[in-house]
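Section 5.1 Outputs to date
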Amino acid sequence: MDTMSVISGIEAALADQLYLVGDDPALVSAGEALLTALRPALSQAALDLAQQAAEEADAQLPDHEVNVVLQDGEPSLTVRPVESDVTFTTEDLAARMTLRLPKLLKSELEEAAGVTGDSINAYVVKALSSSGRPSRRTGKRITGRFQT
């Protein structure tokens, strides 16, 4: 993410507005103080937006982990698959059950299983195996350095 250019654009717009006040030294001084005070708040707002984006993406990608990482002072999102603790073989599949579901849901399951390359049975077993456990993630982690 290029937050610095966005912050610079906001600062430039504020400086343009400050220029419009004219030659009143009190207003110029107050405007410059305001601009200086806003810089850390703008940087924090950029980090907060990156964190919100990570949380939104994380919620939409249940089989992936999304984190905010600072690289050279700029936040970026990293996405990596969550390693599943569940492994099974066909010998492990001894129980059998019949499941009645709407045709539309069956079609959606077939499509989702096709995307992952699994059979419908394997797809459902993997999904049920991973969703019944409490999440290993307890919170979000932000790594790196932040310079103001």
